Amino acid sequence: MTAEGVLPHADRTALVTGAGRGLGRASALRLAAEGATTLLVGRGREALNAVAAEITTAGGEARAIIADLSDGADIDRLVAEVGQIDILVNNAAAEEQWAPMVMADIDSWRAIFDVNVFAPVQLIRAFTPGMADRGYGVVVNMSSIGGRQPAPFLATYGASKAALDMVSRTAAMELAGSGVRVNSIASGITDMGKTYELLPPGLLADVGRIIPAGRLATGDDIAAAVSYLCSDGASYVNGQILVVDGAMTSGQWSTMTVMTASMSAS
Length: 266
Fold this sequence. Notes:
By secondary structure, the protein is of the alpha/beta class. The protein has one domain (13-265): NAD(P)-binding Rossmann-like Domain (Rossmann fold, 3-Layer(aba) Sandwich). The protein is 47% helix and 15% strand. The protein contains 9 helices and 7 strands, in the order βαβαβαβαβαβαααβα. Helix 5 links the parallel strand 5 and strand 6 (180-187). Helix 3 (72-82) packs parallel to helix 4 and helix 7 packs across helix 9 (255-265). The model has no long low-confidence stretch (mean pLDDT 90).
């Protein structure tokens, strides 16, 4: 709550993509707990309904909306169904193709960019004019430290996140003064999501121990950053890439060094 006891996102409507699991779920739960009416967007009806039920049971307001963000026509349908919103959290992301760049097929590049870049652009194009007309709006694009520092075998994912960060910065400049702010969050390695599912538990434990913070990021860590960027406390924060990685990229630290050493030992 604010100092006056008012929930920071009261009377706001927030649309969160990829809200059925991982960071999208955590972000939606946080925004809802802090007063926002949440629109939960994704492909998995059961998962979205479960998050909506969790929110409503806690006294919040939520609605699940099924949409395929790799399909431009389905995004148009989503926009028409939703109407106006105050907060847009572009969290949905296509799964990484773990392959050397020269072996990543071009269809995989297109599939990842469709969801990680073109879907956010389409949603920003659709919703920010109305936000500007009303003099208020916030866009948070969920990025990654992979968009700032290259990692072997993740060229498609890293390039998509780098592109998304440039979308954030350019949109922020173009919309500045309208009441609409656009920022990215560059998340570090988290204890959830596809990376967590793909890598061996022992390797993740090694990575968590050597990160300066001494642990992997949690969903709550990232959701707190989302909440901050959506709040009035961040009213002068615009066009920024907020890195939330436990100081992982602050110095000469290499995830790949740890990964290589751990894989060699196994």
